[in-house]
Amino acid sequence: MSDSATDYAEQVRAYRERKDEAFRDERQSPLPAADRETFEGLNYYPPDEDYRFVVPLHEHDEKETVVVGTSTEGEREYVRWGEFRVEIGGEDATIQAYKSDPDDDRLWVPFRDATSGDETYGAGRYIDLEPDHRTEGGEWVLDFNLAYNPTCAYSDRYECPLPPTENWLDVAVEAGEQSFH
């Protein structure tokens, strides 16, 4: 493994360790108290730079409001802001990015893939893209190694938006967080 790959893997591991610490903290954790008592850490795929993309966001000319179902049969509205085009496992994949507020600088990328319901949470996973995930040239760092389960994966006391069917990928994304149990 090259030094840059080692550095990258260490950065991902450090991020995951901070998340595990937050899950142990009763003030931050989505885990029920009984699960927190025996919590040893979340399950992840090994960091893999093949799932980290630096790509442009192809912003939609017409930004449509979409209604997204939730884990409790509710609904939420998001704005379909743009799409990322990547190649995963030799397959072309297009994944939509959304905003809950058009004035927000961050993007939300919910998705399901061929691992959903088997190795990963069945309802899908999320990637949050903050403004610091942009390069100076305006491209975004879309890193599936940072994909995480929504809070409803840990407890039914949470209501989580479900990935729209347009973000159901046929390919397996073997990166990021795996199923909790």
Explain this structure to me?
This protein is of the alpha+beta class and 181 residues long. The chain has a domain at 44-167. The chain is built from two helices and eight strands, in the order H-H-E-E-E-E-E-E-E-E. The longest helix is centred in the first third of the chain and has 22 residues, at 3-24. The protein is globular and about 50 Å long. The two termini are 31 Å apart.
Summary tags:
four-stranded antiparallel β-sheet; two-stranded antiparallel sheet; 181 residues; 8 strands; single chain; 15% helix; alpha+beta; 2 helices
Per DSSP E runs of 2 or more residues, the count of β-strands stands at 8
C-alpha Rg (nearest Å): 16 Å
How many helices? 2
Q: Could you say which overall geometry the principal axes of the C-alpha atoms support? A: globular
What is the terminal separation in angstroms? Answer: 31 Å
Oligomer: single chain
The overall average pLDDT, rounded, is: 94
Q: Uncertain segments of ≥5 residues (pLDDT<50)?
A: none
Main beta-sheet annotation: 4 strands, antiparallel
> Into which percent range does the helicity of residues fall?
10-25%
Query: What fraction of residues sit in β-strands?
Result: 25-35%
